[in-house]
Structure formats: structure tokens, C-alpha cells
From TrEMBL:
It comes from the Bacteria. InterPro entries: Serpin_dom (IPR023796), Serpin_fam (IPR000215), Serpin_sf (IPR036186), Serpin_sf_1 (IPR042178), Serpin_sf_2 (IPR042185). Coiled coil: none annotated. Residues 59-433 form the Serpin domain. Belongs to the serpin family. SUPFAM superfamilies: Serpins. One of its GO terms (cellular component) is extracellular space. It holds the Pfam family Serpin. PANTHER family: GH10112P-RELATED, SERINE PROTEASE INHIBITOR, SERPIN. This is Serpin B. One of its GO terms (molecular function) is serine-type endopeptidase inhibitor activity. The lineage of its organism: Bacteria, Bacillati, Bacillota, Clostridia, Lachnospirales.
Length: 433
């Protein structure tokens, strides 16, 4: 059974304090590892500025985020949910709009995009199959007192990726049947057509249900939009080696600006995969059912290489409990696509003719995320929604009105532009009385 790392869900500013039990760049595993004297890793720079070796879309997204001052704050973004939502838009796009969005999302064509989505979906299937097998084994043990360990609970977890598309009847929103069938086949997307007064509550209910309540709602008001395309990604999994609650102690956490705050730290000394290089180190904490979490201190030049070359050794791990909420709007979600050459989808030239007969454009993209960790495991969720409006009826902010009241002496110039692009002043004067 495949055990795939869906790293897109768990990329964030993970700057936990950590103590380690081995210190070489690559440590050879030992059948009976002996813990060496522990040493504290001094954090010189806690920012993960550039993550090499990752998917280009993912690594450039992190760079783009941190260029927008996210480098000095807690955040979590989901490239996986972001790309999955884009799949729904790309599936309904045509012409330059489709080509630009495909390129921006890191895909050569729609076939490659669908292959990527299938890999992600299959990882969720593997996770849940493995979980069911585990639950079945425990249930069988419970029926046999000779093998059941008293107090051992039923295995718990969840990993899912789901999609939905929404049409606002009050705005004349309507999807083509061919598009509905296409996204249902390729992305298991459900479709709904509702009057505007029911749209907001219905979408928010779907968001809450799809994330097991981790993200309560997408927005307070959605009825201004004609079409909405949404993805939700949810993971709940126990650590392979859980932390003991009695080992959780309050300690100081050094923030990016050097100040110190009190946090609850989970502590565990165990065998984990570990990597170290000049300026950074990494430890991989496996979750059950094939998902892993890598925690990074300092800067790792090539994250993919580090994870592949990490060696199993005894590591004394000290991690703060996390509870991080993030929200990203058009400045990030659309701005990033613009920076990668996708522009036509957001203006009057947008072509979504494979999705609808109406002229529509993308007006807003929102992503909300949440992650919580404790001694037992990890729970994380993301929702990404693409909101669309009529091209000719794009909601705009009220323009700032400048004031020019000539109620005092003023000058005036009457001029024309010559063929050499120089201005020729025809008349110049003033009025002072």
C-alpha cells in the first residue's frame, strides 16, 4: 500500500524549539542506538526563506507569501487545496484563460492535472483503507480477551479531499451539463443551484461539514457571486509515537524578533528520521496511515533532499502545541497567479465557455486553514473557494473622489501633443479676480 506524503497540507512557519540526540549531517542507523549527550540547537534565523526541492508551484508560493510579510507571522497555507480548486476552474476554461491557468498551476495540460489530482485522491483512499484495516484488527482483538489490551481505544482518523460547485439562481448563474458531468467524473464534485438567499448558509454548512467543524464558514455574504467553485481538504491522524501528557511542560518560545513567550511544549525522546546541515536541521514525525510531518529549524537548502536523506536515530524532540488559523484573500491567491502569468481569467477577456454560457470572470479567491496539534496527534483543514461574477458587472469598490474646486486664483494651459510626442502649449494664462 502506498504511503504518500501530501506535504501541501502542512507547509507553514514551523519554528519549534528542538533538542536532538545525534549531530552529524547524515547519521548511520544502529541496531541498538545509544543516545549521545543532547545539545541545544541555537536558532539564528527561524524563517524558512526558500524551500528548495519542492514542487515549483509550492516553493514559489512560499516565496511569494513571505515577500508579502508573512515571514514574520504564524501561518499555514495549503497548496494542495489551492491547486484542487484551480482544477475546477481550469476544467471550465477555454483558450488563453485555460492555458494561462494551467501554466500558473504548474501543469502542462489537463491530462497531467487530472493525473495529479488522482494521486492525491488515491492517497486519501489508501489512508482510509489502512485505518479500516486497523479498526478491524482492534475489533477482532476486543472479541478475543487473550489478545486485547485493556484501555486500547478504537483507531481514529480521517483524510479526505472534496469538491463542490454552486450556482446562484438569483444572479442567473447556471453551469453547463457537460461541465457538471466533467467535474463529477474527474473530481467527484457535487453541484447545487440555489436562490441567493440560501447560498451563503448552504456553502458555509458544506464548509463546516467538510472540515469536521475546523473551519466554521467561508464568508458572511456570498450572494453577490454568480458561481462558486470550492475545495475542502481535511486530515486527522494520530502520531505513530504519541507524546505523554505528563511530559508536556511550559517553557519559553523565542519569537522572530527575539522576544520570549510562554508555551506548552510536548516532549519525547525516541527514534525518528533526522537530518542536519549547516544552518538548519529537520526531524520527521510520522503519523499513522502513511502521512508524515517534517519540522524544520533554520534553513534547509533542499527540503526534498533532506527528507530523502534523513537517517533514523535517537532524537530528543521538544515541540510547542500548535493552534494556527490563517486566511488568504485575493492579494495572495489571485496575486500569486498574476505573478505566474495568469491574468485573463480576472478581467473582461476571461473565457469560461466550457463551464457556462454566460460571460463570467474570477473576482475573488479565498483560502482558510486551521491546524491543531496535541499529544495524541494532528488535525488540519483547508478550504479554497473561487468566486465568479459577470464580466460586465464586476463588483468594484467605491472610487475615491478627489476634489478640485477652482474657488481661488488658478492658472490654465491649453496644449496639444505633436507627432514627436512633445506637448505644444497653445495658450497659457491665469485667473486671479
Amino acid at each position: 500500500m502506498k504511503k504518500r506524503l501530501i506535504s501541501g497540507l502542512l507547509i507553514g512557519m514551523l519554528t519549534a524549539g528542538m533538542f536532538v540526540g545525534c549531530g552529524n549531517t547524515i547519521i548511520s542507523p544502529s541496531p541498538k542506538p545509544v543516545a549521545a549527550p543532547t545539545k541545544e540547537h541555537k536558532i539564528v534565523n527561524t524563517d524558512i526563506k526558500v524551500i528548495g526541492g519542492m514542487d515549483e508551484f509550492d516553493s514559489e508560493l512560499i516565496e511569494f507569501l513571505e515577500s508579502k510579510d508573512y515571514g514574520n507571522q504564524n501561518y499555514m497555507i495549503s497548496p494542495t487545496s489551492y491547486k484542487a480548486a484551480l482544477c475546477l476552474a481550469i476544467a471550465g476554461a477555454s483558450g488563453d484563460t485555460k492555458e494561462e491557468l494551467l501554466k500558473a498551476a504548474g501543469f502542462e495540460n489537463e491530462e497531467q492535472m487530472n493525473e495529479w489530482y488522482n494521486l492525491v485522491y488515491n492517497a486519501t483512499v489508501d489512508f482510509n483503507d489502512w485505518l479500516k484495516d486497523d479498526q478491524g484488527s482492534v475489533e477482532a482483538a476486543q472479541n478475543n480477551d487473550d489478545y486485547y489490551i485493556d484501555g486500547e481505544g478504537t483507531p481514529d482518523g480521517a483524510f479526505k479531499i472534496v469538491n463542490s460547485i454552486w450556482a446562484n439562481e438569483s444572479r442567473g448563474g447556471e453551469f453547463k451539463k457537460e461541465y457538471i458531468d466533467k467535474v463529477a467524473k474527474n473530481y467527484d464534485a457535487t453541484a447545487a443551484s440555489l436562490p441567493g438567499e440560501k447560498l451563503t448558509d448552504s456553502v458555509n454548512f458544506w464548509v463546516n461539514e467538510s472540515t469536521n467543524g475546523q473551519i466554521e464558514k467561508l464568508a458572511d455574504k456570498l450572494d453577490d457571486y454568480k458561481l462558486i467553485l470550492a475545495n475542502a481538504l481535511y486530515l486527522r491522524a494520530p502520531w505513530m509515537e504519541e507524546f505523554e501528557e505528563y511530559s508536556t511542560k511550559e517553557d519559553e518560545f523565542k519569537t522572530f524578533d527575539g522576544s520570549k513567550v510562554k508555551k506548552d511544549f510536548m516532549n519525547q525522546t525516541n527514534e525518528f528520521y533526522y537530518y542536519e546541515e549547516d544552518g538548519g536541521k529537520l526531524v520527521i514525525l510520522p503519523l499513522k496511515y502513511g502521512v508524515k510531518t517534517a519540522f524544520v529549524l533554520g534553513n534547509i537548502s533542499d527540503l526534498d533532499n533532506a527528507m530523502k536523506n534523513a537517517q533514523r536515530c535517537t532524537v530528543d524532540v521538544k515541540l510547542p502545541k500548535m493552534d494556527i488559523d490563517s486566511e488568504f484573500g485575493k492579494d495572495i491567491m489571485i496575486g500569486y497567479l498574476n505573478s505566474r502569468g495568469a491574468t485573463s481569467a480576472f478581467g473582461g477577456s476571461a473565457d469560461f465557455s466550457e463551464m457556462t454560457d454566460d460571460d463570467v470572470m474570477i473576482d475573488e479567491i479565498i483560502q482558510k486553514t486551521k491546524i491543531k496539534t496535541d499529544e495524541e496527534g494532528l488535525e488540519a483543514a483547508a478550504v479554497t473557494a473561487i468566486m465568479m461574477v459577470e464580466s460586465a458587472a464586476m463588483p468594484t469598490e467605491e472610487p475615491e473622489i478627489k476634489e478640485f474646486h477652482a474657488t481661488e486664483p488658478f492658472k490654465f494651459i491649453v496644449y496639444t501633443e505633436l507627432e514627436n510626442e512633445e506637448n505644444e502649449i497653445l495658450f497659457y494664462g491665469q485667473m486671479v479676480e
